[in-house]
Design goal:
One of its GO terms (molecular function) is oxidoreductase activity. The chain is of the alpha+beta class. The chain is built from four helices and twelve strands. The longest helix has 9 residues. The structure holds flavin mononucleotide. Flavin mononucleotide binds next to strand 3, strand 5 and helix 3.
């Protein structure tokens, strides 16, 4: 291997590393398949429009959760609390039983809402757009609840953390 290929990161590596400087919250996107609830950890959430209320999340092509959302036509965004790092890890790894022992409520649209989350946003599928090795799932928000008292889980440069607001100046 040449020295140049050892030292120079590819464009996708440097892009990924640069995006690590962008601190995000952490969500679990949930929906329902014929086999039961499905969900995956995602931090690509973006608020898109207020009127109408739209959001987007980018999901890797070929994943179970994206497939289920296409079929079920509705999904939920569970905005994770700082105490839910273990769930964030569990829903990012391959497993036959991601929901084992996880307490959920079922929304009227048949999507699972994970207990203890800082917010739940339920969406109907508005559109799916092709985007490289991912797809952009646009959701039309149909309901949204949050608990201001719950501190969020945050993610930066491959590590989970907690949010520390600056003290309000006296
Ligand atoms: C903090 C964090 C954020 C993630 N964000 C995304 C994301 O936005 N989109 C995505 O496709 N995968 C994301 N992943 C990876 C998926 O959670 C992982 O590939 C998961 O196994 C996919 O689930 P599936 O089997 O239902 O497709 C993220 C993982 C972590 C730990």
């Amino acid at each position: 291997m040449s020295q140049a290929s050892e030292t120079a990161p590819s464009l996708s590596q440097s892009f990924r590393a640069a995006m690590g400087c962008f601190t995000t919250g952490v969500t679990i996107v949930t929906s329902c398949s014929t086999a039961g609830p499905v969900g995956m950890t995602a931090n690509s959430l973006t608020s898109v429009s207020l009127d109408p209320s739209l959001l987007l999340v980018c999901l890797k092509k070929g994943g179970l959760t994206g497939e289920a959302i296409r079929a079920h036509r509705s999904f939920a965004i569970n905005l994770l609390a700082e105490a839910q790092e273990d769930l964030a890890m569990r829903f990012a790894r391959p497993s036959d039983n991601r929901f084992g022992g996880v307490e959920v409520d079922w929304d009227a649209r048949g999507v699972p809402l994970i207990h203890g989350s800082a917010a739940h946003i339920v969406c109907d599928l508005h559109a799916v757009h092709d985007a490289g090795d991912h797809e952009i799932f646009l959701g039309q928000v149909v309901s949204s609840v949050h608990d201001k008292a719950i501190e969020p889980l945050v993610f930066r440069a491959g590590r989970f953390g907690t949010y520390q607001p600056r003290a309000v100046p006296a």
